[in-house]
């Protein structure tokens, strides 16, 4: 009897089983493809596929999906079947009438049901996993990570295997020994803290001082194996079937292997590069301090500095070298101290951030003292550590007493009076006063402004003296030394009572002003000894004129500046002060030229002895020199020529050719050490040409173009052209000449 | 009777006419009694047709026709088929001759009075066969590839060789690469979409010897399409012998002297210390002081640098000696200018000057580099050859004086280029000036040829100029090569060799192996495009004024008898069937 309900269930069961299988396959396919992308061999890939398939099948057990389980699943999943789907599994004859009714209802429900009953989640998950695996695999293979995974493996890739070629073309053995295993162990110097690295790649690039150990094993017995470096050959020791040689890496170069087989045939390998990586000195960066810092005595005098240090292998030590200088001039004293950072330098870290707080008071610094310091770092390199130092930083505690007025520029003698405030100083003070206005009481402000006004007056009077103005009253009391000056030339009632030391310098200046006035009368120039003179008489009058008018102008500006200072409006006075400063600056500059004018007069030339010098001892002088530089790379040039001949000839290399190739190889090696990537192939080729083997045209062409690239571009150089001339040409030239007339 | 229509059997004309009339009369007599009127007239018409046909068969009428004779077309390599077709259409009985190299065509050309040449044309060595015949050269398929190439095969070391060429029908995206003998690329040019493209390469010749560089065409993917050899023979440079006469040492002379000495030239510098006392510097040369100029000691120099002061202070005798050395021995003199140089008379300075407003110029070679100059330029004049020109003003020039040259410049303080680090500009500048002015080396033997590349087993015609007595000329394998002397120029000899093997070959004078000439022999498939174009040019030149003379012959071609026969057959058939079909019987 037909049982539609059961048929539906069977169909569902089949569908579910199919889905389970699909799920298994998807879960398997993903990792398999990933393995393929990662570069596993096909055997492994197949094994992964089969293994996963088996494993998942065992886990999922699709055969366990019976109709009973399906029925109970449907009971759970669908409320509408009212836990009666198992009724469908029983033959209807055995059911009670009620059960039969129920089973018919279930059948109807199932038939009319449109929503999916079976779980789809597993399948979805499986397909996501598969896609994920494939995507990752694809990315890996695209980015080359897959390749790098394999490069660490012991098995040397096909490219890395040392290939030996017989150096003698006469008797090549039928089955020459080949390399079975090869590796080189790079033991880094102990200070780096790096473990040894073993690689099968024979082109070595390692840190200076590393120990290199080669292990070569041949598949059959050989007589001896030699490791050839630039100029030496090291026989390799045979230990447990391995040929071993080790050396310490000091300088870059090339090497190759050479072995002799049992029958006496020799074989040589390709050239390999030895590249030396130098241990870089640590890098250093100082933050938090300015190159130059000054402190007032009263304020707290701290420097907070941060040093950022990096090194490629490790930092051994870092310290601050501080020098304190006391005093000035000849009495200066230096004291050097090494300061440790607040942060401890421990271990051999590659990167450090060190802090230091320098308290100038702790260094027993006083006003006027200066501190110079720099940071020095050492890395862990042995035997001699690399070091690096920072630039020098300055810190100064300002001296409250000393205040110097200096004449700018390069005047031989300091002619400027040094005991009154300069215009620049006045400007700075005025600006400070304006800035501090809020902090000061009105009285303080006004009195400071007034004082500045007084200073401005003093300055004006001082400059007035240059002009020959009478010194005003009012400052005599304050500035006794000025008093000296103004009256030194005339009558000084106090002269006998004053003990004048300061006026000397001033004296000169005023005198000098007199010079200017009556230049002709003055025979002797008091400044003569101080001056380095290049006379320029053209500009004398012109200059004096402008100097005077400028001074007058400057004094007028100073007048106005003083006025506003006295009126307690320092702000208004500032523009006048600036103008005055500018004018004074110009005067100072012209003063320099002014000094030139009054300087040295060359002794007059005696016309009668002119050009009558004794030239008896002047003799014809002969000099011989060979400046021609020999051509660079003579052997390489010769080799290029020989190769061209060989290419067009019968490819047989003579003994002389070989020696030229050998010399060319030596010339090239120098270049190749600098750029092994570019010239190694050519050097290799040249080496083969020096061996007793018939070269191929391809090899010759490769070596030749490599050698061509070594030779530098030639400089332009005039050439003597060769020309054939005959009588006809000469006749023609003669004719031409007649027409030129 | 018209000219265009004749009877071939004209003698039979009257008998046939009479016979026809007789037959016709008989026919009318026979048919008259027993026919209706309508049938009779048709029968008469048909019988006339029958008789006329018969008569014409006998008389053989012919029409006049014009025929071209002695016309032939020579089909050579690269012939265009469509062209051949149209040629055959235009000239009906044109004779086709297929050309093959080095084979006599005399038999086929015997009857030919006019010849068309299709394709790239016959080889130059076969052209003699067509000397007697007027030929029209029609050309062939367009040629693709490097069709023109110009460079010096013979060079000296350190030269910057310029290779100029023309590529016909280039393909866009391809490029031409100039390669070293080993195959490394030196320079390349991309081809564009145009009928023909010029290109220019420069090759620095660094190594002595005979080399075969390559010009290789590559497609956009870098695949080699075609590679042609560019043989270059590089010989050692001859050092110049230079004298510098200075009244006092200058930076200009110092730098120039150092530059020349470093390049290996033999330099003698004489700077005056005081009256009669000099400082002599011998750079790369022997100690031979020169106090007084004589034509004899000037023979040891190729170029003399002399500053204006020394030049002006030369005694008239020294001046004369110097100029005579220039005139007779080909010496070059370079007058180092100062401001007074431009005031000198033309007879002294050899140049005329124009005032220039600028004191800084730049040359087109180095547009960004400013060169200082005196505010003058040299005037272009008879026998003046400019060396450096900027914006039409001549900055350095030479003037030919007899066999030699005198030169000068308006450049000032060129050593500043050195100080600015523009060393190569400085060197190039002076290389050009010195190279132009210095005495040339007189050689006793010179080879000349119009053929740039010789092809194996092809004739290589060359000219040999030699001033010295004749000694045998030897080819490869020391076999003597016969030479012909030119009847008018005794120093000009001509010869031909047929090199057998591709590669470098040599001609040597038996008495002096130094006087040899290296030339490169191509295989017959190298530089095909270039050689074809040369062949075409040669053909065109050869056949330029040979306009074809087409001879036309008047012939009478008989009208085919078949037409008359058919007409006769139809008519007689009617006459035979008519009584049986429509007959009243």
Mind sketching the topology for me?
The complex is a heterodimer of chains A (741) and B (585).
Chain A: H1 4-37, H2 42-60, H3 67-77, H4 97-112, H5 121-143, H6 145-151, E1 164-166, E2 179-187, E3 197-199, E4 204-207, E5 211-218, E6 222-229, E7 233-235, E8 237-239, E9 242-248, E10 253-261, E11 266-269, E12 272-277, E13 283-287, E14 292-295, E15 302-310, E16 315-326, E17 333-340, E18 351-359, E19 370-379, E20 387-389, E21 393-397, H7 423-435, H8 442-467, H9 480-488, H10 503-517, H11 540-566, H12 570-597, E22 621-625, H13 634-648, H14 655-674, H15 676-690, H16 697-710, E23 722-723, H17 727-740
Helix pairs in contact in A: 1-2, 1-4, 1-5, 7-8, 7-12, 8-11, 9-10, 11-12, 13-14, 13-16, 14-15, 15-16
Chain B: E1 5-7, H1 13-31, H2 37-59, E2 61-69, E3 71-75, H3 81-90, E4 95-98, H4 106-109, E5 114-118, E6 135-139, E7 145-150, E8 154-156, E9 160-168, E10 175-179, E11 185-190, E12 196-204, E13 209-218, E14 224-235, E15 241-246, H5 251-262, E16 266-274, E17 277-283, H6 295-298, E18 303-307, H7 308-312, H8 316-329, E19 332-336, H9 346-349, E20 353-355, E21 360-361, E22 371-372, E23 376-378, E24 384-390, E25 393-401, E26 404-409, H10 415-419, H11 423-437, E27 441-442, E28 445-448, E29 454-455, E30 460-466, E31 473-474, E32 480-481, E33 484-485, E34 492-497, E35 503-509, E36 512-522, H12 528-542, E37 551-558, H13 561-582
Parallel strand pairs in B: 3-4, 3-5, 5-6, 8-14, 15-16, 15-18, 18-19, 19-26, 29-36
Antiparallel strand pairs in B: 1-2, 2-37, 7-9, 9-12, 10-11, 10-13, 13-14, 16-17, 20-23, 21-22, 24-25, 25-26, 28-30, 30-34, 31-32, 31-35, 33-34, 35-36
Helix pairs in contact in B: 1-2, 2-13
């Amino acid at each position: 009897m037909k049982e539609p309900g059961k048929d539906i269930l069977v169909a569902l069961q089949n569908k579910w089983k199919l889905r389970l299988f699909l799920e298994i396959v998807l879960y398997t396919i993903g990792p398999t493809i990933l393995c393929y992308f990662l570069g596993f061999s096909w055997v492994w890939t197949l094994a992964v596929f089969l293994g996963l398939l088996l494993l998942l099948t065992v886990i999922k057990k699709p055969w366990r999906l019976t109709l009973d389980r399906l029925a109970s699943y449907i009971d759970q999943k669908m409320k509408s079947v009212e836990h009666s789907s198992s009724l469908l599994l029983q033959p209807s004859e055995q059911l009670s009438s009620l059960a039969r009714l129920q089973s018919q209802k279930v059948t109807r429900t199932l038939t009319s049901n449109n929503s999916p009953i079976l779980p789809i989640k597993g399948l979805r998950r499986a397909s996501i996993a598969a896609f994920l695996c494939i995507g990752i695999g694809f990315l890996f293979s695209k980015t080359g990570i897959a390749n790098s995974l394999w490069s660490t493996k012991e098995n040397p890739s096909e490219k890395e295997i040392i290939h030996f070629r017989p150096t003698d073309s006469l008797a090549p053995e039928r089955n020459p020994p080949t390399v079975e295993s090869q590796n080189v162990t790079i033991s880094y110097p102990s200070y780096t803290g790096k473990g040894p690295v073993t690689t099968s790649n024979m082109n070595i690039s390692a840190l200076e001082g590393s120990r290199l150990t080669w292990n070569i094993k041949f598949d059959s017995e050989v007589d001896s194996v030699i490791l050839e470096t630039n100029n030496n050959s090291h026989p390799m020791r045979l230990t447990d079937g391995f040929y071993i040689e080790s050396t310490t890496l000091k300088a870059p170069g090339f090497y190759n292997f050479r072995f002799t087989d049992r029958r006496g045939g020799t074989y040589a390998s390709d050239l390999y590069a030895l590249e030396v990586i130098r241990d870089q000195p640590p890098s250093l960066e100082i933050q938090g301090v300015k190159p130059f810092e000054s402190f007032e005595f009263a304020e707290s005098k701290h420097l907070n500095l941060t040093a950022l240090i990096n090194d490629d292998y490790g930092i051994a030590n870092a310290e601050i070298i501080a020098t304190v200088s006391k005093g000035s001039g000849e009495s200066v004293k230096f004291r050097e101290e090494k300061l440790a950072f607040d942060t401890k330098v421990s271990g051999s870290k590659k990167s450090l951030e060190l802090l230091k707080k320098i308290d100038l008071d702790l260094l027993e610094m006083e006003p006027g003292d200066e501190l110079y310091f720099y940071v020095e770092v050492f890395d862990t390199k042995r035997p001699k550590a690399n070091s690096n130092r920072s630039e020098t930083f300055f810190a100064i505690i300002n001296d409250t007493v000393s205040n110097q007025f200096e004449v700018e520029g390069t005047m031989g003698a300091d002619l400027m009076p040094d005991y009154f405030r300069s215009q620049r100083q006045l400007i700075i003070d005025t600006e400070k006063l304006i800035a501090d206005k809020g902090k000061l009481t009105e009285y303080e402000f006004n009195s400071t402004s007034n004082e500045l006004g007084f200073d401005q007056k003093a300055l004006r009077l001082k400059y007035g003296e240059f002009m020959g103005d009478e010194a005003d009253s009012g400052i005599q009391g304050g500035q006794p030394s000025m008093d000296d000056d103004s009256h030194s030339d005339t009558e000084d009632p106090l002269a006998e009572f004053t003990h004048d030391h300061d006026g000397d310098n001033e004296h000169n200046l005023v005198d000098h002003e007199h010079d200017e006035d009556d230049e002709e009368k003055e025979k002797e120039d008091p400044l003569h000894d101080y001056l380095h003179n290049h006379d320029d008489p053209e500009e004398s009058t012109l200059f004096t004129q402008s100097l005077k008018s400028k001074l007058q102008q400057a004094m007028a500006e100073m007048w106005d500046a003083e006025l506003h200072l006295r009126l307690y409006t320092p702000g208004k006075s500032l523009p006048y002060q600036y103008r005055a400063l500018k004018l004074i600056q110009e005067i100072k500059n012209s003063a320099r030229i002014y000094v030139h004018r009054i300087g040295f007069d060359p002794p007059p030339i005696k016309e009668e002895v002119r050009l009558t010098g004794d030239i008896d001892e002047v003799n014809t002088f002969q000099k011989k020199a060979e400046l021609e530089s020999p051509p660079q790379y003579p052997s390489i040039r010769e080799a290029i020529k020989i190769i061209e001949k060989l290419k067009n000839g019968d490819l047989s290399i003579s003994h002389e050719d070989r020696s030229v190739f050998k010399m060319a190889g030596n010339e090239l090696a120098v270049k190749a050490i600098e750029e092994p990537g570019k010239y190694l192939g050519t050097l290799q080729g040249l080496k083969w040409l020096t061996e007793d083997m018939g070269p191929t045209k391809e090899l010759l062409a490769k070596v030749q173009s490599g050698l061509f690239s070594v030779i530098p571009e030639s400089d332009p150089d005039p050439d003597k052209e060769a020309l054939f001339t005959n009588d006809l040409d000469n006749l023609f030239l003669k004719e031409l000449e007649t027409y030129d007339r | 009777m018209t000219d265009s229509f004749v009877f071939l059997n004209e003698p039979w004309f009257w008998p046939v006419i009479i016979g026809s009339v007789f037959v016709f009369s008989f026919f009318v007599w026979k048919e008259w009694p027993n026919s209706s009127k309508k049938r009779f007239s048709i029968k008469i018409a048909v019988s006339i047709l029958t008789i006329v046909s018969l008569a014409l068969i006998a008389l053989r009428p012919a029409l006049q026709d014009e025929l071209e004779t002695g016309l032939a077309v020579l089909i050579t390599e690269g012939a265009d088929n469509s062209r051949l077709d149209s040629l055959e259409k235009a000239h009906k009985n044109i004779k086709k001759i297929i050309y093959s190299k080095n084979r006599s065509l005399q038999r086929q050309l015997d009857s030919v009075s006019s010849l068309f040449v299709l394709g790239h044309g016959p080889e130059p060595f076969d052209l003699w066969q067509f000397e007697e015949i007027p030929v029209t050269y029609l050309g062939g398929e367009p040629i693709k590839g490097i069709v023109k190439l110009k460079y010096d095969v013979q060079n000296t070391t350190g030269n910057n060789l310029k290779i100029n060429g023309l590529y016909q029908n280039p393909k866009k995206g391809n490029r031409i690469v100039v390669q070293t003998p080993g195959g490394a690329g030196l320079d390349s040019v991309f081809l564009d979409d145009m009928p023909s493209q010029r290109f220019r390469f420069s090759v620095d010749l660094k190594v002595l010897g005979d080399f075969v560089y390559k010009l290789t065409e590559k497609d956009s993917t870098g695949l080699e399409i075609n590679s042609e050899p560019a043989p270059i023979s590089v010989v050692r440079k001859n050092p110049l012998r230079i004298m510098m006469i200075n009244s006092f040492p200058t930076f200009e002379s110092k730098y120039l002297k150092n530059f020349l000495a470093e390049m290996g030239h033999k330099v003698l510098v004489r700077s005056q210390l005081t009256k009669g006392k000099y400082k002599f510097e011998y750079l790369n040369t022997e100690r031979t002081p020169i106090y007084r100029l004589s034509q004899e000691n000037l023979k040891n120099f190729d170029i003399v640098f002399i500053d204006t002061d020394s030049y002006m202070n030369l005694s008239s005798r020294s001046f004369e000696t110097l100029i005579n050395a220039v005139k007779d021995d080909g010496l070059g003199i370079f007058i180092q200018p100062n401001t007074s140089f431009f005031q000198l008379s033309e007879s002294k300075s050899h140049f005329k000057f124009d005032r220039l407003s600028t004191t800084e110029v730049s040359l087109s070679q180095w547009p960004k580099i400013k060169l200082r100059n005196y505010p003058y330029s040299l005037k272009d004049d008879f026998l003046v050859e400019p060396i450096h020109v900027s914006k039409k003003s001549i900055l350095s020039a030479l003037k030919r004086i007899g066999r030699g040259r005198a030169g000068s410049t308006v450049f000032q303080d060129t050593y500043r280029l050195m100080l600015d680090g523009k060393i190569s500009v400085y060197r190039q500048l002076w290389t050009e000036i010195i190279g132009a002015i210095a005495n040339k080396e007189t050689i006793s033997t010179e080879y000349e040829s119009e053929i740039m590349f010789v092809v194996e087993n092809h004739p290589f015609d060359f000219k040999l100029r030699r001033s010295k007595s004749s000694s045998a000329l030897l080819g490869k394998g020391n076999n003597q090569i016969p030479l012909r002397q030119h009847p008018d120029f005794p120093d000009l000899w001509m010869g031909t060799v047929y090199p057998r093997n591709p590669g470098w070959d040599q001609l040597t004078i038996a008495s002096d192996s130094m006087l040899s000439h290296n030339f490169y022999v191509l295989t017959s498939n190298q530089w095909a495009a270039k050689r074809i174009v040369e062949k075409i040019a040669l053909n065109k030149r050869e056949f330029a004024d040979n306009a074809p003379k087409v001879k036309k012959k008047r012939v009478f071609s008989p009208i085919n008898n078949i037409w008359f026969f058919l007409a006769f057959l139809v008519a007689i058939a009617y006459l035979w069937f008519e009584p049986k079909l429509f007959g009243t019987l």
